[in-house]
Each structure stands twice: as C-alpha cells, then as structure tokens.
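Could you help me review a protein record that somebody else here produced? Here is the record exactly as it was handed to me:
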Amino acid sequence: MGQLTAVILAAGEAKRMRSRQPKVLHPLCGRPLIAYALRTARAVADRTVVVVGPNAADVRATAGDGVLFVEQRERLGTGHALQQARAACGEGPVVVLAADMPLVSSETLERLIDHHRATSAAATLLTVVAGRPQGYGRILRQGGRVKRIVEDRDATDDQKKITEINVSVYCFDTRRLWKALAEVRPDNEQGEYYVTDVIGILAKAGGRIEAVVAPDPVEGLQVNDRKQLAAVAAILRRRILDRLMTDGVTIVDPAATYVEDTVVIGADTTVYPHVVIEGPTSVGSECVIGSGCQISGSRLADRVHLRPYCVLTEATVEEGAQLGPFCHLRPLSHVGPRAKIGNFVEMKKSRIGPGSKVPHLSYVGDATVGEGVNIGAGTITCNYDGVAKHETRIGDGVFVGTNSSLVAPLTIGEGAYIAAGSTITKDVPPGALAVGRAHQIVKEGWAARKAKKRTGVED
C-alpha cells in the first residue's frame, strides 16, 4: 500500500489561548503541546508532515529534524490546510492528526490504521461516544454506515443530540482523498474548507467509510483554551503517575504529586506528597524524595535521600548522598557519592567530593571540595568580588571550622584545618592550621563600670 504518511495540522491561530505564543508550543507536562502528536505520528508512520502557518519559525524549530514542513499561508480551514500537504505525502495512505490532541495513543492510532487497511476503506475516522459533545462534529449514519459529519456550529437541534462525535483523526486512501478534497466548498457559516466534508463526498461517491471508536473518550479531547489545557494536563499527569507506579515507583499521594512526562524514575523509589519533578530529570532506584521537594533538569543516582523541601535545578547527585531538609542546589552543582548536604545549605556551580559533609547553614559557590571534607556551620565561600567570580579549591580531608569565610581565589591543601570564625584570604598549605580572626581582648570589670556610668555613680 506504499509508505504511510502522518499529516499534523498545526497552522491554527489559537485566538482563544489569548497568547502571543502559538498554541502548539504551550507547555504540557514538560513538553510543548505539539510534541505529543509528533511522538504518536513517528511511532506509526514512515513520514511525518507538519502543516504550519506563516511566521512559524518557533514551531519548526521545536518539531526538530526528520519532519517535512508545508505552509498554509491563508487560514481557510482544515481542508485547505490538508491540501497544502499533497505534494509531500506520496502514494501511500495518509493519517491526519490535529496538533492540539495530546491524548491520542499510538495504540489507538495503530488500530485505526489496521482497520483501514483490512477493510480497504476510502476513509476511516476515529470517533468517541461522549456524554456532552458540545463543540464537536456529529457522526451521521444511515443504516449503521457513516455517511457524513456535521460540524457543531452547523448542526440542527436533532443532530446535536447525537453522542458519537468526530475527533479530527482520519486515515484516507490517498487517491480518493485528493479527488474528494478538490470538491469541498466553503458552504458553511465560517466560509472555510472542512476536512469533515470529505467524508460526505466520499460516501456519496460510493466509497466505504469506516469508523473506529476510541477505547477511552479522553483521547478525543482537544486543547483550544487554557482551561482545556489544564484539564488535559490533569489527565496526562495521572497517566504519568500510573505508568511510574506500574514500573515499581511508590507514589504516596498521586493527587498531590506533579511529575512531568520528561522524567524517568527507577524502581523502589518513594515519592512523598507535594513533590514537583520536572524537565529532563532522572531519578535512580531506591531513592526517597521527601515532601515538598522540587527537582528540575537534574540527575539523581541510586539510593539518594532528599529530606523535605529540597530544591534542585540542573544538579547531579551521586549514589547514596543525603540532602536536606531545606537545601538549595543551583545549576552545575555536583554532590558526590555518600556526601551530605544539610539544612539551609546553598550550592552553586560546585562539586562536593565523596563522603564530604556540608551539614548546615552554609553557602558553597564556584568551589571544588575533595573527599572526606567537613565544612562547619555558617561557612561561606566568598566567590564574588563585585566584578568577577573566583574559585575555591579544598583538598581531601580538610576540616573547616564553623562560621568561616573563605575568600576566593583560594586553595586549601589536603588535610588542613581552618579554625572556627576565621576569614581566610591566603592559600593554606597541606596539613596546616589557619587562623584568621581578630585577637581577643578581655577587659575585666568592664560591665560593672558601664553600669555605674549609666546610673551616674562614681567611685
């Protein structure tokens, strides 16, 4: 039957989104809306064609390689959009998808294509039986066979009572498709050329019209405004969590957990409520993600434990490390195996070596920390001089006392000690003790003398 072509219609203006951004680029669970149609099309088709409107450079860039683009310069309806793709489609069957239908599964699309081929139909359409089909085209049948589709805005009151609806997913015999499409006329309220009219034209010419009912009605949901985007996102999030739980991940409270479609989580990991995991994030096996954590674009190895309310952005955490509660890893932070980052610690563009500890109340920026280092509470790396950022290097086995300020650029040698309360401005040799604090002065009897001055009593 020739190569199968998937045509994705993505040229709509999306006025109801009230946005400067094209509708198909609005984010949905970590991916742009069009990405879901592209993924489904690539799973079933030999060739993918995307119909875009004018000034669609961002859509083209998002779709990426391996896609053919055609432009619909005038937005004259779905039929007109499909006509623009004719030269790119070849001789095989054509599957037509809408870019704003992210819940159509590749399995359902395979069923549609297999049925179309098995019946040698002129056209096979995907339908849904819906309780409240407002806004969708109705399937008109005669003697049980599909005869045509009538759009909601053009339907009579009796036709609007029909619950089987068209969801704008079709498989066509190519030769008959283009001939019928040439006969479509804009005889409707909008003055547009509808793909739906092709069904009636093919049926009138004696072509066989088949329909496959989607197993789950939500597959027919379209996104036309932000309310619909939110409704579809809720369904997709539940699908994501169901998939993770099937694969061995414990989601303590699915209703209070947000995981995007781009996330991978290993088996036997437990995710507690109010966690957000987004972007291209991977979480290993046997991890614990405590309540309130937010992880974006990061990689966590096996057996990592995040206590509650950790925030990680573009960070890497190696096997067996413990973080939190209330720590913040900014981009390019790297926590080594078995290391510990405690409460109210902030890291930025730094590496913490294996088994090292930054237990609490510290800032580590632009630093490289070796193995087995202990950094005391209140320690900060002073990495910014008002003009440029500078690096701090801390060797293996260093002990940094509490409330120390390490003024970069600075190197602290292996096994060195930094006395508590020190401000260190010069490099420290290996094994040395560095003390950088003011000399302590004790004035005995000072408090009593001050009290007498307040009361005016003199000796």
Residues 226-434 form a domain with the UDP N-Acetylglucosamine Acyltransferase; domain 1 fold (CATH 2.160.10.10). The two ends are 113 Å apart (CA to CA). Helices lie at 33-44, 57-63, 78-84, 106-119, 174-181, 196-204, 226-246, 446-455. The first helix runs from residue 33 to 44.
